[in-house]
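Trying the structure run again after the queue cleared.
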Amino acid sequence: QVQLIESGGGLVQAGDSLRLSCAASARTLSLYMYTMGWFRQAPGKEREFVAAISWNTGSTNYADSVKGRFTISRDNAKNTVYLQMNSLKPEDTAVYYCARDVLRYRWTISPQNFGSWGQGTQVTVSS
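Done. C-alpha cells:
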C-alpha cells in the first residue's frame, strides 16, 4: 500500500515559517494524477482540512484560517507536495498530514475523498 511521508515539522515561534513536504514511499506511484491535500489535527480536536491542490490546473483551495499565510504547491518532477506556512500562530499547532484523493483525475476538497494518509509531522508554534 502506498504511503505518504511528511517531513519538515518542528518547534517554532509565532511569526516564523516552516515548509512541510510530502512524498510517496513508492517510487512507482506518480502523485501528479491526484489532487493532494493537507490536513491537521490539534490535541482534542477533529482532523480538519487545511489546503488542497488539483492534479492538473494547479487550482488551490484553503481553509479560511490559513488563507494568505499558507501556500500549497507541488513539484511533479520530484513527486512531492509542499505546504509553505508563514506567519505561524500558536493555533496552528497540530499534527499535519498529507493525503491523496482516492480517485485520479478529480478535483475535490472533501475530506472523505482522501486516503493514503501519511504518519503526520508535528508542528508546534510557541507564543
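The two ends are 39 Å apart (CA to CA). Worth checking whether this holds up in the mutant runs.
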